[in-house]
Amino acid sequence: FSLCWLALKVLVFFFFFFFLQYANAICQMTDLIFTERELVQSLKEYIEAEEMKLEAVKSWANKLDMLTHASTSDPEGFLAHPVNAYKLMKRLNTEWSELESLVLQDPSDGFISNMSVHRQYFPDEEDEKGAAKALMRLQDTYKLDSESFSKGKLPGVRYNAELTVDDCFDMGKLAYNEIDYYHSVLWMQQALRQMDLGEDAKTAKADILDYLSYSVYQMGDLPRAIELTRRLVAIDPSHQRAGANLHYFEQLLSKELRARGRSQQEPADERPIQLDTYERPKDYLPEREVYEALCRGEGVKMTQKRRSRLFCRYQDGNRSPRLLLKPMKEEDEWDSPHIVRFLEALSDEEIEKIKELAKPNLARATVRDPKTGVLTVAHYRVSKSAWLEGEDDPVIARVNQRIEDITGLSVDTAELLQVANYGVGGQYEPHYDFSRKDEPDAFKSLGTGNRVATFLNYMSDVEAGGATVFPDIGAAIWPRKGTAVFWYNLFKSGEGDYRTRHAACPVLVGSKWVSNKWIHERGQEFRRPCGLTEVD
């Protein structure tokens, strides 16, 4: 029984350890799945060896139990037989030493060795923290309560996965340590709810109530904080902080009541804490609510009048010889700024080849620092990316040529093809692709001017989430495998079009693959001549 329990604990550890690595690229996480499978096989072999060892020890124990039962009932009579005397000497001198060697054998060596080999590829504490934050990011963006995650109630999922009381507690504790009391309340409340329903856990209820009551207090809900602290005192009267906190909370509430000219406290709200119970604190992103609403498909400003201005057509790239026989299918996605989608921009074979080339080089995606022009990681962009040159493979050269044919713009001065993989929770918050006037050095090192246009290939469908949204104009564009979207970042005058501020919404379910081609100003002088007015 103890070995089975050990195996179960190890398997549960691995499941949740890898399950929580949401922020990593899905393609790299698949390697961890096979690593885990190998470790489980190694664990089973260890258990089998331990069981064989225990069976051998049990056999010794049973034999010696019967023997000692007979010998201790009449020691002198037993030893009167010379064979018994000899065998006692032999057992104590030889056989017990053999048993000692058997007990000292450690069948775990193979398992520990296998663990050591793979440990270098394991995610670290920062990865786990990032994965937990990804869950909270999804929770906020798509307005999903903690129970939806805990019970695996997500749209489009093929495999169910649940979070235990201990998992919810760890989520809440991480938020608490980050001074994020809003999410701490949501996850501690979920841990308490599951425990009250009878779920077993190693976490003590007193610990959950301790974190929850103080987080609720920080959210400004004194009556509920008092009620939760009273529950804590009832469970653990000797709790180090509970008594003092209760006295402090009650004093604060009395002071508030006196200030409002009231003498009696209102009863605490008995309704369960939900997403809308407390207001989520504002953060650094002014358009957060608009951006997240668009990600949910809400607030899209696609009016009937605007829709009537959208058309589809065949695009031959101004009679490009490569498009004459098979022109590109082009659809309008938005009228102003003009955003178009090209159908069948990439074949399945090309997509697989691009992914194959990118996978070995995927690393945390970077953004160009607007002050220095140096590429650096940023918390608002969570994905893995790689850069591919035309010389890497004929497929990349062919894709680059196709982009030039379709857009009529030169790609000689464009940036390399950037391939990005957004795993669950992966996102890129609202940003501009072009550099603003206060960022004169953003692309200085390239010597090719500003980013005049963006060509974005969708290389996968996404089960839920992952839209490209434009908060300033209320547009949302959903990924469709094999298609590409294109827009100009600059007016013909060279001025930036601030309406093109856009974002990659968090992936809720699935894996999102894209490839970007940022086309620069240099080389476009005769392909897209300057306009006479600022907004031409």
UniProtKB/TrEMBL annotation:
Q: Which Gene3D superfamilies match?
A: 6.10.140.1460, q2cbj1_9rhob like domain (2.60.120.620), Tetratricopeptide repeat domain (1.25.40.10)
Please provide one cellular component term from the Gene Ontology annotations of this protein: endoplasmic reticulum lumen
- The yes or no answer to whether the keyword Ubl conjugation is present is no
Q: Where in the cell is it found?
A: Endoplasmic reticulum lumen
Entry EC no(s): 1.14.11.2
Q: Which UniProt keywords apply?
A: Dioxygenase, Endoplasmic reticulum, Glycoprotein, Iron, Metal-binding, Oxidoreductase, TPR repeat, Vitamin C
Instruction: Please list the residue ranges annotated as the Fe2OG dioxygenase domain.
Output: 413-521
The molecular function terms of the Gene Ontology recorded here are: iron ion binding; L-ascorbic acid binding; procollagen-proline 4-dioxygenase activity
Which co-factor is required?
Answer: L-ascorbate
**TPR repeat intervals:** 206-239
Specify whether Iron is a keyword of the entry: yes
Which of the seven top EC classes does this enzyme belong to?
oxidoreductase
One Pfam family in the UniProt entry: TPR_P4H
Write out the similarity annotation: Belongs to the P4HA family.
Instruction: Outline what the protein does.
Output: Catalyzes the post-translational formation of 4-hydroxyproline in -Xaa-Pro-Gly- sequences in collagens and other proteins.
Q: Under which name does UniProt file this protein?
A: procollagen-proline 4-dioxygenase
Q: Which organism is it from?
A: Sinocyclocheilus anshuiensis
What gene name is given for the protein in this entry? LOC107661679
